[in-house]
Each structure stands twice: as structure tokens, then as C-alpha cells.
Amino acid sequence: MVTIKGTLSVKTITGRYGQFNVGHLECALGEFAVRDGLLDEYAEGSYQGTFGLKRIYSGSYQTRHRFIIETRAELAGIWLENYEERHIESDSLEADPIAEEHQAKQVEATPTPQSTRESHDDQQDDLAALFGELWPLGSEIGDLVKLTPEIGRERMGQQLRYLKRDVNGQRLWRFEPKAQHWIRIGLDEEH
């Protein structure tokens, strides 16, 4: 792993399987596209800090009758010094990484947990299956949850939708970019 200071611009794209984040890393080694699932936790914006590069490689995708070849960086870690969450202009030529995973696997999408289940126990079972070892999530304000992108981008996306949901018009969880974890900021009707 190589560590280098730089600026990572994160933008949110809406693809075939929902929203996903992509990054553009500018550093002394050059400019690189970043397609890691760990970016899905971050809001659009510009993040300055030190980045651990696991590898640099060429990647490609096809979109809108174009074939795009780019130099990509795979991140091993992010240590932020400063950040500014703001809207980043989108190229709309980005390929949905979940669609790429589906093409590689040639399998159907895993269904998302249904929110209209009849039983509270069924909902809890679905959430336990979704979060695995992380379940049950902290129930007190200030409790922390750290997601891991190794579970796959699709499953992590389902976890993020749960954490980003509104209950009675308020968010229950907030992502802390510097610490790279989620913190409970509100309680739902069960607590």
C-alpha cells in the first residue's frame, strides 16, 4: 500500500440499480477514477487528506454507445484532514457498478428487505440478515456503527438505505466522514 496526500471529489450518480457514488482522486501521482463501494457512505463533496492506494489499474465501461477507458485507483484507506460537502457536476456517462457486478456474475438481483411486512419479528429477521454481525444496531443516541464494503456494493447499498431513511421526517443516523462511521442521532418509535 502507498499513502499519498490528495483531494477526492465524490459525486452521486443514479444508475439502473439506484444511486451510487464515484470518486475522482487528484494527487502527486496523477488523477484517478475511484469506484470503491466505501464511497457510497460519503455525501457529494470534496475531501482532502491522505489516501492509501492498494493498486492502480486500467478499467473500462460502456455507456451510451461509448467505450470509456480510465485509470483507476483502489483505496485501502482514507484519513481525512478537511472536507466540504457540496454538489459536484455530473458527467452522466458513469456506469452503474452494481450493473457491472451483475454482468460479471450473470445472476439476478437479490431482493431488498420488504418494509411492508406484517410482523415486527419478520422485519427484525430481515434486518438481522441484512446487517449480520452488526445487528442489533445501537439503540442509544451516540451509538456508533461502522459498515464494511467487503460485503458487496449491493448489500451495502441496502444497509445505507436503512441508515439514511427518515422516520417521522427525521434522520436517525448521520455519517461522520473523518471517523468513517455512522452515529445515532435520533430514536425511532421502538426506543
Tell me what the structure shows.
This protein has helices spanning 97-105, 120-131, 153-164, and strands at residues 2-15, 18-27, 30-34, 45-63, 66-85, 144-145, 166-167, 170-171, 173-176, 181-184. The chain is globular, with a radius of gyration of 18 Å. It is built from three helices and ten strands. The strands form three sheets. A five-stranded antiparallel beta sheet has the order 3-2-1-4-5. A three-stranded antiparallel beta sheet has the order 6-10-9, with no helix packed on it. The termini are far apart. It has two domains: 2-85 and 97-105, OB fold (Dihydrolipoamide Acetyltransferase, E2P), CATH 2.40.50; 120-184, no CATH class. With 191 residues, it is an alpha+beta fold. InterPro entries: DUF3275 (IPR021693). Residues 102-123 are annotated as: Disordered. This is DUF3275 domain-containing protein.
Question: How do you describe this structure in short?
Answer:
The chain has 191 residues and is an alpha+beta fold. 17% of the residues lie in helices and 43% in strands.
In total, the number of domains comes to 2
* CATH fold topology of the largest domain: OB fold (Dihydrolipoamide Acetyltransferase, E2P)
Strand line-up across the major sheet:
3-2-1-4-5
Assigned CATH class of the largest domain: Mainly Beta
Q: How does the major sheet shape up?
A: 5 strands, antiparallel
Strand fraction band? 35-45%
State Rg. Answer: 18 Å
Structural class: alpha+beta
Order of helices and strands: EEEEEHHEHEEEE
Q: Can you tell me the residue ranges where pLDDT is under 50 for at least 5 consecutive residues?
A: 107-111, 113-117
Structural shape: globular
Arithmetic mean pLDDT: 85
The rounded distance between the terminal residues' Cα atoms is 43 Å
CATH architecture of the largest domain: Beta Barrel
Binned, the helix content reads 10-25%
DSSP summary: helix tally? 3
Q: Based on DSSP secondary structure assignment, what is the total number of beta strands? A: 10
